[in-house]
Structure formats: C-alpha cells, structure tokens
Request: fold
Amino acid sequence: MTKDQRSSRVIGYLCALGAGSVWGTTGPLSTKLYAEGAAITGIGFWRLMLGTAGLALWALLFHREVFKVDRKGLWLMAGLGGAMVALFEVAYQFGIAGAGVAGAAALLYTAPVMVALVARPLLGERLTPLRFALAVVVMIGAAMTVTGKSGGGATTQSAIALPSLVVGIFGGLLAAVSYATTTVLARWTVPRYGSYRMLFWEALGGVVILAIVLPLAGYAPAPPPTSAAWLYVFALAAGGVVLANFLFFGGVRRIEATPTAVAATIEPVVGALLAFLLLRQGLTLVGWVGLVMVVGGVAAGYLKEGSESELQTQPEQAG
Reply:
C-alpha cells in the first residue's frame, strides 16, 4: 500500500467515524426537542428543510455547478436517494413509537449486515468472512448498547401492545433498509457526482416527497413551537443532515461501502456516552459490553483490512 493509499484509507475511516459521532448527538437533541413539544412527524421534515436551504444558499454563492446534473443523476440522487431519505425519516419515527427508542435503534443497526450482503452483487465489493463477521459483531454490540441502558424509565418491550410492536419492528427494519440503500447508492454516485451534489439533491428530493406524503397521510408538518425548539432543529440540520452526511460521503468515497457502514456504527457509543453525561442515563453491564464490541469491531476492521490491502499491493510494488 502506498503512502497516498494509506492516507486516503485513514481519512476514509476517520470520516465514517466522524459521521457516526455526529449522528450520535441526534438522540439527546431529539429528546430535548420532544420536551419542547415538537411533533415527532415534523422533526424530520423541518431539519431536512433547513439543511437543504443552507446547502442551496451555499451552492448559489460559491458552487453553482451543484445545480447542474444529468437526468440519470437526478433520478438516482433526488429520486431514489430522496425516497430513501423520506422513508427513513418516517419509518424510524414509527419504529420509535412502536418498539421504543432502544428497539428501533437496535433494528436500525442491522444495516451494516445488509450492506455487506448487497455490496458484492451491486458494487462488486469483496464479501470476506472478516467483513461479514465484523458487521455481525458490530450489529450485536450496537443492539446491546442501546438496549442496555439503566434508569430513565425506558419502556420495556413487554409493556408494548403487540400490534404497536409489530408496526415498530416493521418501521425499524424499513429504516435499516433505507440506510443500507443510501450507503450503497452513495458508493456509486459520490465518485461520479461529488459529495455536495449528492447531498443537496438527496435532501431536496426528501423534502419534496415528505411535503407531499405527510399532508396526504394526515401528518402535515407543524413548525417547532418555541424558539428553543427551533434551535434544536437547527442543530439537528447542521449536524445530522449536513455535517454528518458530508463526512459519511467522504468516507464512502475512499473506502468500500461495508467498512464505511461498520465504522459509522460508532453512533450508539457516542449516543450512550452523551446520554450518560447529559441526560443521566447510565448503562448496564450488557450495555458496556456492547459498547466495547462496537469499538473493538470498528478498530479491528480498520487494522485487519488495512494490513490485507498492504499485503495485496506489495507484489505490484515489487514488480
């Protein structure tokens, strides 16, 4: 592995870890937002709206080429990408409402396994035993982390009515599918169209779809009720929509889809630590073990795959 290749790989992993870390702030910020009386179904719409408006203004001033895209790119980014963003925003909220925050988050982190399975036939990426094993380990660790919280009056699965639980499980799995699809789509589109163009058109497509679907479903997005709520929505837009996605796309451009998805699963670790520091929500032994599994799985993925890539490139350099 050359010095430039090694540097690019390190940057890719750091970007994916940074994306997961920023996404980890979503839980605490959303908790504060719920306390302000914001409607759950409107949060995704308004944070996407603010994020898209900011991206559009910046592009208008400094990067007008972002608005230029061919028909294929428009259908892929605004159409398919926007649909996946809109699906995630709606499905994940139903997952939270039906299965609880911990249950929905645990279902969401089946996404790295989905990415590992589809990246080979769709992108031609290797499905090594190591990649699949690490994806499973990180998925299990994430589930243990989000379900191993102590205190806070969390709703247990046994206290949730069966019909609501079924809807919650379905919503959580749909959110995982949308996240996995977006990861694979970004692996193809970002190298061809760039991170900024991908993020802008994906977010814009999501806003348009939500603006049409939510009112038709009887959930017209109400604006945040207080100035503090608007501040939290702005933070979610700047962090979860803009910064985290820029970092995630920066990672997926430099490393394959599967290790990117695995590395970004550092999110529940950051969320758990922030919940402990800011919301006084601790972790049980199961939660701490899961946290160690996530960190260990992500670190092992970087170290092992980096060493394998170096071994594979040595004969070429020698020749």
